[in-house]
């Protein structure tokens, strides 16, 4: 069975282009979300993945419709492959149910690993520079409003480890989690820096 998925960032954008492409591809069912690319909660995608079984194929218009980042997409497709589910990208000549498609996606997986290595390298370089300026060691610096906003964005991306985020911001992991949860949502303590209006409501699991 072919299961289509489409996404737009805001309600002002139109899904018709993606819907028409998925219909032409012969999708049996189509699910959608209206949310930004960085959103961690995607009800439509979750429903699509829940009903899919071994031998099914997830069809999307573009690769960026299903993931927040290349490493995230690679991880998602890896999970699909373990379940015997394929991925077909209509505008990218990617079809993991074919030998050629798997080869193409293998290149993406290599690029994702390269991206993770670069991120780690930049983090380590930043720490080395901080140590060179004499800012390493001692009690971790306190959370600030600017750090908190960065912490929310970085922690929301599941490809970023909490330890690396804390190191990058110059705080301890315990301090990081005192202000944000594992999904990057601000905790009650964050209101001290953001103000009551700055705290986003937690999204129910």
From TrEMBL:
The keyword DNA-binding applies. One of its GO terms (biological process) is DNA integration. GO terms for molecular function: DNA binding; DNA strand exchange activity. Residues 1-134 form the Resolvase/invertase-type recombinase catalytic domain. Coiled coil: none annotated. InterPro entries: Homeodomain-like_sf, Recombinase_CS, Resolv_N, Resolvase-like_N_sf, SSR_resolvase. Transmembrane segments: none annotated. It comes from the Bacteria. Keywords: DNA integration, DNA invertase, DNA recombination, DNA-binding. Pfam families: Resolvase (PF00239). The active site is at 9 (o-(5'-phospho-dna)-serine intermediate). Belongs to the site-specific recombinase resolvase family. This is Resolvase/invertase-type recombinase catalytic domain-containing protein.
